[in-house]
Write a structure and sequence with these properties.
CATH architecture: 3-Layer(aba) Sandwich
Order of helices and strands: EEHEEHEEHHEEEHEHEEHEEEHEEHEHH
Largest sheet: 7 strands, parallel
Number of helices: 11
Strand content: 15-25%
Structural class: alpha/beta
Shape: globular
Bound molecules: nicotinamide-adenine-dinucleotide
Number of domains: 1
Radius of gyration: 20 Å
CATH superfamily: NAD(P)-binding Rossmann-like Domain
């Protein structure tokens, strides 16, 4: 058997939104940078190489669940770093397609681990894109006692009654390592399983693992054909059509919208050789400065001259009430901090959306 060429970066799901942005920051002339991606038609309309992927990135079209993909990718290559992004990503879909979600997200991760063993490849570091979803409703502080505890998913009857918050308590920002995980939907459970599988495998094989728990990522390059891509694309489309944006619950749900450029920089930082923390490290990647969904809808409507958003009182099972994170750990240990606040980023996103669709303000 010939020696595998060492070095470079392997990115599963590397042709997607985050992978393409990462390629533009981390492809270098000195080492291979390979995206392994199915080009899922729900995300990639044309099934062709996305123009956003750096021209020097290699693209191998293949399914991470299929061992043959790995046998092809790792036949003669031993990457220095593996960034694991490939996943089924939509929370709403995951309840109706649990097999697909667990096959791609859980079995796909296991296939990656098994293939590394089969090919005797031990990367220096693996990085996995996890999600804020692993916290579920997160921790709430009791106003009377000051006690903090996790809350379970809100029940159907609470939501029907318009009881959006947990009475007498206020939400606390998530903090990786301190906030307990508490998944409340299928997608979240598969993301937590990815963390657990990789933690076990990496610590047994002496591989450094970085888990990045991402808040709501948005920005240019986000799939506009995927109806599940997040609320911003939907909000911008409706406002661009001159419609009033409908906002669920009472509109006060907090979300932490973090710009794709900041997220790609966080990944580029952990894969760099300058980042020397060993073992398993875990960071929240957000802005730490959440906005209410109504505020965001209002900002988009005002950018596009659309009517004021309408609070509908509708709700979606499995949605959490509030989600945002602290970024102090990422700042002190990773020397990463978000640079783009949501108002600036969303205004630029609106411009990108209009340009892409040949529309005008
Ligand atoms: N975008 C966000 O707001 C967000 C938030 C939290 C976590 N994440 C996580 O970040 C990662 C990347 O997300 P993204 O926003 O770039 O999503 P994306 O859908 O744009 O990219 C995912 C890529 O994975 C590919 N893929 C899907 N199934 C595959 C398979 N079986 N084999 C090979 N490739 C496959 C898709 O074709 C796509 O190109 C995901 O793991 C997601 O769970 C994203």
């Amino acid at each position: 058997m010939s020696e595998a060429t060492p070095g470079g970066v392997l990115v599963t799901g590397g042709a997607g939104f985050i992978g393409s942005a990462l390629s533009r920051l981390s492809v270098s002339p000195n080492a291979r940078w390979v995206a392994v991606d199915t080009l899922n038609p729900r995300i990639h309309e044309s099934q062709e190489r996305p123009p956003a992927l750096h021209p020097s990135a290699e693209l191998i079209t293949g399914d991470i669940v299929d061992p043959a993909t790995w046998d092809h990718v790792l036949a003669d290559w031993s990457p220095d770093v593996v960034v694991h992004l490939a996943a089924e990503t939509d929370t709403g879909l995951s309840l109706d397609h649990p097999v697909r979600f667990s096959t791609v997200n859980v079995d796909g991760t296991a296939q990656l681990m098994q293939a590394l063993r089969r090919h005797n490849v031990t990367p220096r570091r693996i990085v996995v894109a996890s999600s804020r979803a692993v916290y579920g409703e997160g921790v709430w502080r009791d106003a009377a006692t000051g006690d903090e505890r996790t809350r379970s998913q809100r029940t159907h009857s609470e939501l029907l009654a318009g009881q959006w918050d947990f009475p007498g308590a206020s939400p606390v920002a998530a903090r990786a390592g301190l906030t307990p995980t508490n998944t409340s939907n299928v997608y979240a459970t598969t993301k937590l399983a990815q963390e657990g599988l990789l933690s076990a495998w990496c610590s047994s094989h002496g591989v450094d693992l970085s888990i990045l728990r991402l808040q709501n990522v948005y920005g240019p390059g986000q799939s506009l054909i995927n109806p599940y891509t997040g609320i911003l694309a939907l909000f911008v489309r409706l406002a661009a059509e001159g419609k009033a944006i409908p906002v669920y619950e009472d509109g006060a749900m907090l979300r932490d919208f973090v710009h794709i450029d900041d997220v790609a920089r966080a990944f580029a930082t952990v894969i760099s050789e300058d980042y020397a923390e060993h073992g398993t490290t875990m960071y929240d990647i957000g802005t730490g400065a959440p906005a209410s969904v109504f505020e965001v809808a209002e900002a988009i409507a005002s950018e596009l001259g659309a009517p004021t958003p309408v609070v509908t009182g509708n709700f979606r099972e499995g949605d959490v009430r509030h989600a945002w994170c602290e970024v102090a750990d990422a700042f002190s240990r990773l020397e990463w901090s978000p640079q783009i606040d949501w108002r600036t980023g969303i205004s630029a996103y609106v411009n990108w959306y209009l340009e892409r669709n040949g529309a005008q303000r």
